[in-house]
């Protein structure tokens, strides 16, 4: 009963917005943003001139708009913040990963014959946590222990429950007093540095295994990668990476015959075992669970298909720490922590970020700034320079396509045959939706999402 008034009020507000004279143009803008949940409002103008003659070819001013402003998408990658923009980011990441596996979008198709693996690097254990375990599709006890031993704090060290994947207990410590929150937060804070040292040290390990110097190795081999960070239920990040072996000139150059998947597998395990970051009175490194699987064009019993890998990476590119039970916005003050709607495990990690951030030896780590990320401050998705096309290239291609459509809509030639110069000036005028607009924006997003889903299903049925 309590939700009915707010729902009714939302419907009334949406109806009132639809009666306003600028509503048709506002709807066009919202559809152009893909149904963005928090669009940016801009004031300004854009003038397009002929570079040779100075003739004005096109003028656009927000002052001429019925709304008085222009809407543009927020571009947030997080699905929890903007489902519409995160879907675009997910699609771009999917094509970025897939082009580095199959070719296309400027990457030679021969790249699909290069050795490549899908590797997962995890954090070490900082204490026992509840977990979902299964074998052959059958759920197993979380942590079976004989005689029900107790830890030094009087809590059970085992758990005989069979947790489902979505059980809220999964990832929570069996004993919060035994759990090393300091170590967990510091590991998250240095996870990006661990990855950097891994990519720097991998060529040296590879050269040693082959029996050549690093200089000689660079003449024959290049390692390319694309990686994404994912939060585990226990609040620690781990990395999924597509790692590919190329010739020295990149994806268009075949690697030498001795560059194989088994050799890459061995090099990754040895390099991960050697990586370490000294921190105060501890040394941080990767966990023991390092999974390396071959990637094939099609599904294989011992590996993964390239399409499945691309979908998996793209899926986690739009998620953040909120999947580990925390929030998706910065926490400004310590008094906010007790009021957050988060798991108790996440709350303790956030408190640890704030307390460690005050210590002199950790002042160089902006732990308070990244407390909502449980200490992790690295990029969620990165790639080496020659892995594949860039996100910027994909966005520019989409912008060019939309510009072409816009020109055709107003009767201008689709292709600009002469060189032009564009002068534009924009000012921030606000963000988010106003009274009654959220309903129509979500309606537009759902229609666009449905159209995309239908298009994908049609492509699967008829790839040609």
Name the features:
464 residues; alpha+beta; six-stranded mixed β-sheet; globular; disordered N terminus
Structural notes for this entry:
The chain is of the alpha+beta class and 464 residues long. It folds into two domains: 147 residues, no CATH class; 183 residues, no CATH class. Helices cover 35% and strands 18% of the residues. The protein is built from ten helices and 14 strands. The protein has a six-stranded mixed β-sheet with strand order 12-11-4-8-7-13, with helices on both faces. Strands 1, 2, 3 and 14 form a four-stranded antiparallel β-sheet that branches. Strands 5-6 form a two-stranded antiparallel ribbon. The longest helix has 30 residues. It is globular.
The tally of beta strands, per DSSP, is: 14
Q: What does the radius of gyration come to?
A: 26 Å
Q: What is the number of helical segments per DSSP (H or I, 4+ residues)?
A: 10
Beta-strand residue percentage: 15-25%
Strand order of the largest sheet: 12-11-4-8-7-13
**Category by helix and strand content:** alpha+beta
Uncertain ranges: 1-5
